[in-house]
Amino acid sequence: MKKHPNKYLVPRLFTYLKPYKSQTIIAIILMIISMFCNIVNPYLLKIAIDTYIAEKNMAGLLGIGGILLALGLIIWALARIYTVKVAKITNEILINIRHELYTHIQTLSFDFFDSRPVGKILARVIGDVNALQDLFTQTIQSLVPELLTLLCVTVFMFILNVKLALACLIVLPALLLGIFWVETFSRKRWMKYRETRSTLNGYTHESFSGMQVVQGFANEKHIFKTFTGHVDELSHNFIHAVKLNDLFWPLVDLSWGAGTVMIFYTGYHMVVSGEIQIGTLIAFCMYVGMFWRPIMNLSSFYNTLITNLSAAERIFEILDIKPELSSIDATTGKMLPDLLPIEGEVCFDQVSFAYETSSPVLENVSFTIAPGQRVALVGETGAGKTTIVSLISRFYDPTAGEIRIDGQNIKEVSLESLHRQMGIMLQDTFLFSTTIMENIRYGKLDATDEEIIAAAKAVHAHDFIMQMQKGYQTEVNERGSRLSLGQRQLISFARALLANPRILILDEATSNIDTQTEILVQKGIERLLKGRTSFVIAHRLSTIRDCDLIMVVSNQGISECGTHDELMKKQGEYYNLYISQYTLLKEEA
């Protein structure tokens, strides 16, 4: 992570208060009124002792008592109002930050998710955002009001007696020096703690997601040992940070105590010499408490600030990542135009791509697919078949060359309009933790129940869905763990078909469906593929024989291209793949 100085992080954090400027000002004004009511109390007490008690003026004492009672009620009422107001402001700010972070993450390319465990991303969105709550609360409640309180109390102390005021302030330089020393090292320790917590979240999420593998290989003890190691490291880093962090309070308490001793020592001699009255000393002692209380609160705010700046830094680190794939024109900064309803022509023009610079996957690939053609991509695992369809979907941008749909460079149109006209069923089937009906509806959010059922029937998913206890209203667990792999793919297939796309991408769409079900699915999608440009990736070569065009992906490009019969006559790579698979099936039989 790139480290940022406090002078960068703090102003950026406070920009989130701008939309609530008027509400914040109202809350601060209420706190200031409450503060003045509180500051007046010791001065009224001084008058009561030095004047009314000395003169035995009962009416004056009762008057002072009434004023003190009224001020107390005002302070209580104002405290209730501004506490609720500050809580609302803080909560809305956290919601805004979380929305901004979540929305921004949605715009990032697959490279971002490929390079980070999901648990670490969750730690930023949940834990780090929550860590800012105390910071914003104390910013409103402590920063401005406590500074004003400190200023006003200091003025009142100098009005009462200059010598006593100086005795109170003499310890402040040592306190400020100590706080600066603690801050220098504390932030680094809290950053280390949050990094360790993020690692623990990532590992926990991963181990729970792979629990079937863990239990299948009886590795519970090994996983628990690793988990315990992460927890121990987290505990160590937390204690390491807290040890230094907790020096704040002894420093403030020690300074407070030293300042109070100085006041009593000086005040005692001044009272004895008749320089001041006892009421003045009592009032001054009360002001000393009022003087150190805002220092304590400001120290708490500063402590919260340096504790949570690491969380802010981690949040801004993600917000500062610029989306590699954007719907915004990089030159004008304006929204790119939508891709108009397409016919479905797809053209690769000298396209190259590499996930890592040193390992190109595709080099100078060129081909043109006519609207409505069915194209099969075959080849060995890792040859680049999925990469080609990912580039068509613009999950990644090519490192060189252009990809055009109906003659339009897909980098020059908005992502949303591009994806709206594509149906994608990837190799990794994903279902959400909701009903089967809603999982299929995800392909077209305004689809009717009848349209959803029709799509399910088309891929022969309707029968097994109706056999379930609640039919289409059956809840599936995360990733659809309650369903078989084949059932998940059929539901995912229905979702893709429901979108009624102009370009349909099927990446190993039938890899987990048994042969009998595959035959039914092929019949069901036959009419749905008609008139649509489709790209099919399948290891079962028998499922792609009827495609209009078969492209063999190997050696970082397209090595062969033609129909099934044409490629079989060539007796090249496709022929060898087909014969080897046919021989294997024959031997298994």
Give an account of the 3D structure.
With 589 residues, the chain is of the alpha/beta class. Helices cover 63% and strands 10% of the residues. The protein has a 6-stranded mixed β-sheet with strand order 6-7-8-3-9-10, with helices on both faces. A 4-stranded antiparallel β-sheet has the order 2-1-4-5, covered by helices on one side.
Summarize the helices and strands and which ones pair or pack.
Blueprint: H1 6-14, H2 21-53, H3 58-107, H4 110-114, H5 118-130, H6 133-160, H7 162-169, H8 172-209, H9 211-216, H10 220-245, H11 248-272, H12 278-319, E1 346-356, E2 359-369, E3 374-378, H13 385-392, E4 400-405, E5 408-409, H14 415-420, E6 422-425, H15 436-441, H16 449-458, H17 462-466, H18 485-498, E7 503-507, H19 515-529, E8 533-537, E9 549-554, E10 557-562, H20 564-570, H21 573-588
Parallel strand pairs: 3-8, 3-9, 6-7, 7-8
Antiparallel strand pairs: 1-2, 1-4, 4-5, 9-10
Helix pairs in contact: 2-3, 2-6, 2-12, 3-5, 3-6, 5-8, 5-12, 6-7, 6-12, 7-11, 8-10, 8-11, 8-12, 11-12, 16-18, 20-21
Shape: elongated
Distance between the termini: 57 Å
How many H/I helical runs? 21
What integer is the average pLDDT?
81
- Low-pLDDT segments: none
Measured by DSSP, the beta-strand proportion falls in 5-15%
Helix content, binned percent:
55-70%
Give me the side-by-side strand order of the main sheet: 6-7-8-3-9-10
Largest sheet: 6 strands, mixed
Oligomer: single chain
Radius of gyration: 35 Å
Give a count of the beta strands, DSSP E runs of length 2 or more: 10
Quickly give the structural class.
Answer: alpha/beta
